[in-house]
Amino acid sequence: MISRNRYVGAVEIGTSKVVALIGQYSRGRSLSLIGLGECPSRGVIKGAVVDYKAASECVHHALEQAERGAGVRLDEVYLAQSGGHLEGFQNEEGVNVSAADSMVSAPDIETVCHLAKTRHLPDGRMVVHHLRRPFRLDGRLLPDPEHHSGRRLEVGYWTVHGQENLIADHIHVIRGYNVRVTELILSSLASGALLTTPDDRRAGALVLDLGAGTTDYVLYREGCAFLTGVLPVGGLHLTNDLSLGLRLNNQDQAEKLKLRHGRGVVATKDRAEKVWLNGDLSVGDRQFPRQTIEQITAARTREIFEVVRQKLGAGFDPERTAAGVILTGGASKLPGLDEAAAQVFGLPVRLGEPPDWVGDDLRAPGFSTALGLLCYGFAAPSDPPPPGRRRSGTGLLGKMFSSLFGFLL
Amino acid sequence: MSITPDSGELPLARDLPAGRPLSLKVIGVGGAGANIVRRLHAENLPGLALAVVDTDQAVLTAADLPDRTLLGAALTRGLGAGGDPALGREAATAEPEKISALVKDCDLVFLVGGMGGGTGAGVTPVLAEAATRAGALVLAFVTLPFSFERGRVAAAEESLRTLRTGCDAVLPLPNDILLQAAAEHENARHAFARADEWIGRAVKSVWAMLSRPGLIPLDLAKLQQAFATRGGRTLFGLGQGAGSTAVADAVASLRLCPLLQSPEFARKADRLLVSILGGPGLTLQDVRTLMDAVAEQFGRDPLVIPGAAMDDAMGDRVEIVVLGTCELGGRRQTPRRASARDRAAAAAGAPEPAPAEAAQNEFAFGTETESRGYFDKTDRNLFEGQDLDIPTYQRKGIKLVL
So what's the pLDDT on residue A216? Predict the structure, then answer.
């Protein structure tokens, strides 16, 4: 924020498409989008890069397109991270307030945060995010406990960790374009940052980003990201289920049927109602019962929600998720999805609506993550420095190092 | 048989005539079956009739049992089926009177055998059909050949399919699991002996439920209930423990049972028969602990049919056996019993209608192997024992109309 204008890049390497965005922050206040690059993805399955070369080409293509459109060159980007290898755990720690007058001091806060973050990870895993939950001082919820008085200061962290080599692959794809990765941000957190307001987060909200290869979710409680997770099941599974269930050899045909007739709940009562595969009277056009298509897609969507609910476990409490469920991601365009989600979670469900500054061309739910990266990167660093301590600002590599050192020491 | 063909009584409500004990019979088919029966014979279980059937005279001579039947002497000259299921089948169908004599007057027939051999694969389905026709509840425990026995695998799968239509439940035991479970230095004989032992214990546990004094006794009707729908997948696992921690050990060993580890068994059962066999010290508390553990493992609130029995010979040991069935997609919702009408028809001398289920099965949807399609070459996507890449409708058994 030293210069007046700052350019920030955001890249999401999705299973179906790569999106690169360039945003311009003017005077650290307003954000405008100046570049967009989009490219159908190759070499990515279930959110993980499996073909380095193919994935690199797509990403570089998208970045180039964005830079050309914006007329600037990027130095660094925020990168969205997803994939089934990401996992999380919670860890809570508490300390007794050290001062004689029971006033919480900065070292107390630092100690308790440090304790809660230090937990040994297995070999080959690295921390992606330490998400801090609100402090509790003798059970009182406090955003910043410093100078409050009490006896016991507690804090919980949700630590997201992933497989080191997969994360490194992800970063290398970007570095191959000679651009640094400022920070890795969980896809769900990015989408959540875009689609929830602080009020939503305080009331409690569940954001579900249904992508092509993965379903990313984040549960907000008490104003903080409380739980996150990735389920390596997404829209492509719907397509695959259809192609197997309807005996279609061609995934493209299945995809077409999904987009045209797929539903999150079975709505067709008439078993005999049929729909055409192409509908153009061409040779090889076939008919399928509409109900069957809906049964296949509804079974899968319901299962996705059920598995998410199961993975959330006891952390999910409908009573404490007053802002309801917010759906986004490319697969959330499926009609009836909200109904299915409402049945499983027992909460009001809405489709995520991006803020007004997002132009018409980017309002589709498939752009939530990339747009969210711009918001998130700017507004809410993933590991808000404990109040009273400044952030070292070493960026990702430093972070990789420090987490590595954390294990060694 | 407790029901005469012309009684016209509803089959599920059959009463046993008072005074006649339940008759249970184990029929070992082929060389593998004979081994298991021999093992059971050594245990001397009262009230459990044992029989051996083979096309090989040498096997029969070696089996030291009174009830031995040689099939297809005219076809094979008593030299065995030579691994050809077709020959085995021919041998069995050529002598229907021998077959029906074998299964006559039985309430519960266990068929044990190997699906890798000619006799096991060929004769077992014929026996199963005959036994069902005679009104018995038929449970088949069969071993499947190692997957490296390539030629045999396809034949075994084929026989398994026919067998499934004829039995109330088929519990396949892939030999591959033996490899997994075998310790490095264990010799082949021990590994095979363990397969025999697994099957032997399952048979024994069902026998014990029905004939030993029980905390929670089991009767034939309940057993029928457990296997009310046929043709689905089955699940089978064992656990045992001894000493002061017997119950905890049994639970732990059930969890580790290699039979329950393969993906086929990872799915949840719809109906589950849990039988617990313990010594005189078995308490209801123990039974409850075991039942809770089973419920936890198989979740999804299946119809659980508990049974618990005591046997003085068990001492401080506890054994738990779970047998379950899963309905696949509502296919073959055929009630297990041939209806009274069929029986009447049979009694009237009308030719026995070919089992309609068999014909339907050819089109059954769930028999195709579970496929992952686009995700075929990716890592398995496991969540709580299910591979999420396999279409949901397949795993949940949703029947599709095309």
Answer: 95
Judge: A236–B391 Cβ closer than 8 Å, yes or no. no
Q: Is the ipTM of this complex over 0.85?
A: no
Q: Could you tell me if residue A98 is inside a domain?
A: yes
A244 to B401: CB separation less than 8 angstroms, yes or no? no
Distance CA B384, CA A309 (A): 13
Please write the tens of the pLDDT for every residue from B265-320: 445 667 778 888 888 877 888 888 888 877 777 655 667 777 888 777 777 888 88
Report yes or no: B363 at the A interface, CB cutoff 8 Å. no
Residue A258 included in any domain: no
How many domains are contained in chain A? 1
Best mutation site among B371, B379, B390, B400 for testing chain A: the one with the most A CBs within 10 Å? B400
Bridge partners of residue B229, in order along the sequence: B335
Nearest-CA neighbor of B208 among B27, B48, B2, B34?
A: B48
- The CATH number assigned to the domain holding A130 equals 3.30.1490
Which are the contacts of A256, defined by CB distance < 8 A and separation ≥ 6?
A: A277, A278
Check whether B219 has a pLDDT greater than 80: no
Domains of chain B: 20-211 (3.40.50.1440), 215-337 (3.30.1330.20), 370-402 (no CATH)
Taking the Cβ of residue B400 and every Cβ of chain A, the question of whether any pair is shorter than 8 Å is answered with yes
- Tell if the CB–CB gap between B389 and A245 is shorter than 8 Å: no
Which residue of A244, A302, A303 is in closest CB contact with B373? A244
Q: Cβ B401–A307 below 8 Å, yes or no?
A: no
Among all chains, which residue has been given the structure tokens 């410093």?
A146
Look at residue A37 in the predicted model and tell me its pLDDT.
Answer: 94
- The average pLDDT across A191-197 equals 92
- A140: containing domain: 87-161
End-to-end CA distance of chain B: 43
